[in-house]
Amino acid sequence: xxxxxxxxxxxxxxxxxxxxxxxxxxxxxxxxxxxxxxxxxxxxxxxxxxxxxxxxxxxxxxxxxxxxxxxxxxxxxxxxxxxxxxxxxxxxxxxxxxxxxxxxxxxxxxxxxxxxxxxxxxxxxxxxxxxxxxxxxxxxxxxxxxxxxxxxxxxxxxxxxxxxxxxxxxxxxxxxxxxxxxxxxxxxxxxxxxxxxxxxxxxxxxxxxxxxxxxxxxxxxxxxxxxxxxxxxxxxxxxxxxxxxxxxxxxxxxxxxxxxxxxxxxxxxxxxxxxxxxxxxxxxxxxxxxxxxxxxxxxxxxxxxxxxxxxxxxxxxxxxxxxxxxxxxxxxxxxxxxxxxxxxxxxxxxxxxxxxxxxxxxxxxxxxxxxxxxxxxxxxxxxxxxxxxxxxxxxxxxxxxxxxxxxxxxxxxxxxxxxxxxxxxxxxxxxxxxxxxxxxxxxx
Length: 444
What we know:
By secondary structure, the chain is α/β, with parallel strands linked by helices. The chain folds into three domains: 4-126, Methylthiotransferase, N-terminal domain (Rossmann fold, 3-Layer(aba) Sandwich); 140-382, Alpha-Beta Horseshoe (pyruvate-formate lyase- activating enzyme), CATH 3.80.30; 388-443, CATH 2.40.50.140.
């Protein structure tokens, strides 16, 4: 009998996709996947290291896992993902109860690594590169949703922003063949999926070695051609995230305007509104460059929802720098904004900078920027009251048994009265109420 495996996932959509691939490979190798630590013989923690707090959480969780099963001495614990890739052998030193450390590109080798641990190898370590024959296939059984699927199109990052650990944890950019992505889209459509997300650290940096599958599609960049090729499959809803400002070509907006099934949402992280801080961050764009791209988005013939990420309290950020970020947020009027207080990531260039912004000041700036953003967000959300939105009913609401919840094409959470028979259907909902971070409505 193969042992039962439980996978717990932290972090971004790429980690979710990796866990789905890991589960697919494990089940194909004869392992049974379970939904609870209490039933597991092997626990795999798929980790995130983008922020210091997320990394600390991993080691806390390892202790909790062992404490939950004090009588199961043969329980195997593996750390996979970004913390594993970055920390390597050091994970064993930090947490002696860990049996396996599995890097970001070793997903396909997990069944073999588990067998090594079962045979008595005390510290199983694999930080190697992805194999040429490694599969990106995911079984429908392992997808996080029966209606929405993630399709990784590019892995890694070549940008080397001074604060970011991703190029070190995920490696250099590597794009999947377009023909493979289009074929996966068609398979998902045949299985009844209504929405896909093309995902990657920087999706618009997509550059396949050979453009098989993009022949006949116009576009200023390979990513623009890929968008049109995927849209041509006819799958009802296609989203993509995350975009990098420097590579955001205006033709992306043109592709959205040409194809209704390319959803009306763009996530374009700016990180700061100050040119001086952007230079220290090594973002490769200026405030004016970013605002040019925002202008194209705002002037689109479609109403496009806009979201972004911002870091406050970056080393050296002055009151004037922060004020420039505030004015940029006021100008952009984001539908949603993810604000983070800067935290040092060992191994990045910014870790060597003098972190001279006190924690109290970081918190104050966070709260001030959040207040400014909320004012704009409330106005935007109120503007949806009375409008009809196309919503994919994804599941029952966690707050009400009589409500369903889903996302609109503009990627807003929408709750509405409805029964379970509508799950997986795309329905029209008239918005009746705007709430914090969500909308409420009634079926048309």
